[in-house]
């Protein structure tokens, strides 16, 4: 019953997504793109969280991918469409190298180092003035697909599907068991033969690759990159708030949170141009204190009378 | 013992480096020490909270920023000198911290560590964005005459006001050490930090101690916030880098080792000062703390004989 309902909802959502470019104007498409982008980031953040590691470094890998993509086009003459997978690859490789170092850290040490990542990448980009354009950033001559709104929409949708697909893969394969075991108790996971470092590295590299990929899509759809725009704290804060509000450790939770907060943010941006992020901070605090499992957790409690999941 | 040998080598290296710098450019050393004092004075309260309450307060720098804003507006309204506001700012920030602790952090103490991280991250966002919302992102500064006081030794001239940060850092570090080892409340706090359950068994009200220690740490942060505005311009995001640098220093010193924060901040302040001395490397100074945290923490995690929860202050 419940599963059928979920399928119907998914089919409906899919139908809306596919028909949107034909029906809606430029502004709704732009809103939809933003929501999809943050949704994808929220899902990737949650994928790593399933292993019990909190990353505050989404903006870092995202911005890195953005710069990789735009610089590949500007400096190496790479075709725009090809530069996006290139950005993903580069972010993945960087994440592999960094992961080797920082995944030996746990809990708060890991989190704080990732919190510093965005700042560090920003400083590096800002200082390589000749190559990256420094604090002023770089501008491309035109946007991808000649700036066609529907083209960019499909591209972002593609990014979202990559993130959702990866998340589904994480949920349905044995990765799910490995990450859950690590999250619950590292010692018992290790005694059961789970190679903790390898699985964490896999999760970190996969999520970082997708974040770089999304960064590439973002920069190609706007046609410019400055350190302040692509390493903006928004790219860490919003996905985090969305995933938390929807419900962590699932694919559905971040999707739900992203739709709700994404729509709300469009309204808030108009009402409070400066400082609307304060709302996300408040949401984070309320969710952590009063409903750590998010809306999804509340929903489950309500429908199943407080019983846990059957599986 | 590995600890003493390593510390010995480190001290020798530091003295050698300092000698080279003095011979080459004395102002680099002086400004490095002053910067180190600022970092240490802000990091020490974080070390206190981390060592006893076992919470990483990601809103640490934001608390200082809020204290600085409060001082700024109080001084503007009353025409008061920020120096007179140090104690009131400390008291007000401590009260503010107490309320925040009771309303939010206390409820998350039993929750997983990661929830606390996200919670304090959220608190930081609320504070910085709240200030942004109320007062915009415009930078604000109070000009004071005595801040530009300088001293001449031979043909060398340098500002001396920032030495006040060094003094504050030393007072904080040794004052806390005295508090933790000589007073009843301090000893109770230390006991709670070492083993909350054991402390509860011998009759210490653990949650009350947590609240007091948190408020005390915020009093120290608040005092620094008032001092900070004498020297620097403030804006809503001014606190964020201090959160990360403070954590870096606390981690480098080892959690619970409060006087060690002084040494760690000298290392950080001097390295940054050296990099800032050259035009080519100036922009890279803010990357030092990251390198430091990676090198030190990794060095420790590779050698398990060197536990992160080291000596207690």
Question: Topology, pairings included?
Answer:
The complex is a heterodimer of chains A (311) and B (313).
Chain A: H1 2-23, H2 26-49, H3 58-76, H4 80-102, H5 107-127, H6 129-132, E1 138-139, H7 149-172, H8 174-184, H9 186-191, H10 196-222, E2 224-225, H11 227-230, H12 234-246, H13 252-271, H14 278-290, H15 294-304
Antiparallel strand pairs in A: 1-2
Helix pairs in contact in A: 2-7, 2-10, 2-12, 2-13, 3-4, 3-5, 3-10, 4-10, 7-8, 7-10, 8-10, 12-13, 12-14, 12-15
Chain B: H1 2-24, H2 26-52, H3 60-78, H4 86-108, H5 113-135, E1 150-153, E2 156-159, H6 163-182, H7 184-194, H8 196-201, H9 206-231, H10 240-253, H11 258-276, H12 288-302
Antiparallel strand pairs in B: 1-2
Helix pairs in contact in B: 1-2, 2-6, 2-9, 2-10, 2-11, 3-4, 3-5, 3-9, 4-9, 6-7, 6-11, 7-9, 10-11, 10-12
Q: What does this 3D model show about the protein?
A:
Chain A is 78% helix and 1% strand. Chain A is an all-alpha fold. Chain A has a domain at 24-231. A two-stranded antiparallel sheet of chain A has the order 1-2. The longest helix of chain A is centred in the C-terminal third of the chain and has 27 residues, at 196-222. Chain A starts with a helix and ends in a 7-residue tail after the last helix. The model of chain A has no long low-confidence stretch (mean pLDDT 87). By secondary structure, chain B is mostly helical. Chain B has one domain (26-176, 210-302). Chain B has helices at 2-24, 26-52, 60-78, 86-108, 113-135, 163-182, 184-194, 196-201, 206-231, 240-253, 258-276, 288-302, and strands at 150-153, 156-159. In chain B, strands 1-2 form a two-stranded antiparallel sheet. In chain B, β1 and β2 form a beta hairpin. In chain B, α2 crosses α10 (240-253), α2 (26-52) runs antiparallel to α11 (258-276) and α10 crosses α11 (258-276). The model of chain B is unreliable at 304-313 (pLDDT under 50). The chains are: A mainly alpha (311), B mainly alpha (313). The A-B interface holds A 52, 54, 56, 101-102, 104-105, 107-109, 111-113, 115-116, 119-120, 123-124, 126-127, 237, 240, 244, 272, 274-278, 280-285, 288-289, 292 and B 56, 58, 104, 107-108, 111, 113-115, 117-119, 121-127, 129-130, 132-134, 136-137, 241, 244, 247, 251, 283-284, 286-287, 289-290, 293-294, 297-298, 301-302, 308.
């Amino acid at each position: 019953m419940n599963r059928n309902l979920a399928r119907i909802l998914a089919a409906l959502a899919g139908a809306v997504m596919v028909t949107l470019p034909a029906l809606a104007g430029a502004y709704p498409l732009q809103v939809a793109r933003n929501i999809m982008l943050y949704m994808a980031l929220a899902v990737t953040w949650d994928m790593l969280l399933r292993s019990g590691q909190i990353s505050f470094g989404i903006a870092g890998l995202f911005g890195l991918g953005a710069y990789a993509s735009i610089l590949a086009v500007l400096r190496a003459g790479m075709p725009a469409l090809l530069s996006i997978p290139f950005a993903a690859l580069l972010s993945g490789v960087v994440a592999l190298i960094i992961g080797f170092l920082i995944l030996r850290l746990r809990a708060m040490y890991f989190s704080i180092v990732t919190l510093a990542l965005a700042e560090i990448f920003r400083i590096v980009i800002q200082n390589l003035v000749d190559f990256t354009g420094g604090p002023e950033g770089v501008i491309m001559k035109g946007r991808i697909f000649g700036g066609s709104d529907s083209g960019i929409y499909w591209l972002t949708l593609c990014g979202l599907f990559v993130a959702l697909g990866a998340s589904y893969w994480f949920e349905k394969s044995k990765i799910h068991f490995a990450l859950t075991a690590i999250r619950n108790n590292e010692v018992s996971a290790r005694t059961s033969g789970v190679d903790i470092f390898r699985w964490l590295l896999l999760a970190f590299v996969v999520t970082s690759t997708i974040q770089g990929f999304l960064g590439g899509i973002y920069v190609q759809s706007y046609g410019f990159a400055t350190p302040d725009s692509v390493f903006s704290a928004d790219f860490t804060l919003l996905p985090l708030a969305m995933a938390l509000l929807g419900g962590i450790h699932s694919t559905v939770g971040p999707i739900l949170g992203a739709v709700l907060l994404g729509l709300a943010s469009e309204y808030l941006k108009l009402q409070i141009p400066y400082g609307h992020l304060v709302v996300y901070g408040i949401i984070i605090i309320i969710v952590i204190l009063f409903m750590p499992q998010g809306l999804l957790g509340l929903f489950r409690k309500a429908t199943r009378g407080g019983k846990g999941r059957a599986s | 013992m590995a600890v003493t040998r390593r510390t010995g080598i480190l001290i020798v290296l530091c003295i050698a480096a300092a000698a080279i710098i003095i011979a080459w450019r004395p102002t680099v050393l002086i400004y490095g020490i002053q910067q180190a004092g600022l970092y240490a004075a802000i990091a020490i309260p974080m070390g206190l909270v981390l060592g006893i309450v076992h919470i990483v307060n990601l809103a640490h720098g934001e608390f200082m920023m809020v204290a600085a804003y409060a001082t700024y507006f109080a001084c503007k309204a009353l025409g008061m000198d920020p120096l007179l506001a140090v104690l009131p700012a400390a008291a007000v920030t401590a009260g503010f911290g107490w309320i925040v602790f009771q309303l939010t952090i206390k409820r998350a103490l039993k929750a997983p560590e990661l929830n606390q991280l996200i919670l304090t991250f959220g608190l930081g966002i609320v504070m910085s964005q709240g200030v942004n919302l109320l007062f915009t992102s415009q930078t604000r500064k109070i000009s004071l005459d005595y801040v530009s006081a300088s001293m001449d030794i031979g043909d060398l001239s340098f500002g001396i006001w920032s030495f006040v940060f060094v003094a504050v850092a030393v007072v904080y570090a040794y004052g806390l050490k005295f508090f933790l080892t000589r007073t009843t409340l301090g000893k109770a706090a230390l006991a709670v930090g070492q083993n909350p359950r054991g402390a509860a068994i011998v009759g210490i009200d653990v949650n009350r101690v947590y609240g007091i220690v948190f408020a005390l740490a915020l009093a120290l942060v608040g005092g620094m916030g008032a001092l900070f505005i004498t020297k620097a311009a403030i804006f809503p995001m001014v606190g964020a880098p201090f959160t990360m640098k403070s954590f870096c220093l606390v981690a480098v010193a080892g959690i619970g080792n409060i006087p060690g924060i002084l040494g760690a901040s000298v290392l950080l302040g001097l390295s940054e000062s050296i990099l800032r001395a050259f035009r080519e490397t100036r922009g890279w100074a803010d990357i030092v703390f990251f390198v430091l945290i990676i090198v030190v923490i990794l060095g420790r995690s590779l050698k398990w004989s060197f536990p992160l929860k080291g000596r207690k202050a």
